[in-house]
Amino acid sequence: MDYSTFFTNRSTTEITADIIGRPLTYTAGSQTMGGYIVEAEAYLGKEDRAAHSYGGHRSLANEGLYRSGGTIYLYAQRQYFFFNVATQAGNEPQGILIRAIEPVWGIEQMLVNRHGKGGVLLTNGPAKMMQAFGIHDLSWNLHSLQASPFTIELDSSHQRPARQIVRSPRIGVNQSEREWADKPLRFYVAGNPYVSRMKKRNWRTDHGWQ
């Protein structure tokens, strides 16, 4: 299966659930960094009040959402960067925000990139993850995953199975829009300490993996 098929052959919520536990890596020169995806959010396009494409809004900034499934959509808020992947066919602007990974590969380099902030702080949030990869600009925006230094492993034999995948409301959605603020479009591994805002009392010794 290729990226275009994986990111278009089901609903965005199904794809988001399926991406949990898959390896996400970024290669810079000879250094590969990454880990297992433990948290992601679905954004459902023109009807979704939390989506950048709500109401059919389209601009140079959010063009990545309008590209075909498997296209990288990067955006910035101040000095922070966020990694998204478009889902569905072109002009159907839906996507997935990768919020956190459990780091496995290139941890030493990621620690350098995060200025020594280790432990769960290394990658337990979308901006932290991008800092750990050393991403400081939008260079890879609008590229296909296939033609980028990012890799999401599609071979399910490499996917780490979670004991439980929790669905919850997304983080940071405007609470005045109750319908969309409350929709359970965030998926994460129960008990994994690298999930953003995971309380320490809820951490599991096995990090939520089978």
Provide a descriptive summary of the structure in words:
The chain contains six helices and eight strands. The chain is α+β, with helices and mostly antiparallel strands. It has a single domain (3-198), classed as Methylpurine-DNA glycosylase (MPG) (3-methyladenine DNA Glycosylase, Chain A, Roll), CATH 3.10.300. A hairpin with a 2-residue loop joins strand 1 (23-28) and strand 2. It is globular, with a radius of gyration of 16 Å. 44% of the residues are buried. InterPro entries: Formyl_transferase-like_C_sf, MPG, MPG_sf.
Give the helices and strands, then pairings.
Elements: H1 3-6, H2 12-19, E1 23-28, E2 31-43, H3 63-66, E3 72-77, E4 80-87, E5 94-105, H4 107-113, H5 126-133, E6 150-152, E7 165-168, H6 178-182, E8 186-189
Antiparallel strand pairs: 1-2, 1-6, 2-5, 2-8, 3-4, 4-5, 7-8
Keywords: DNA damage, DNA repair, Hydrolase
Organism: Lactobacillus xylocopicola
Protein name: Putative 3-methyladenine DNA glycosylase
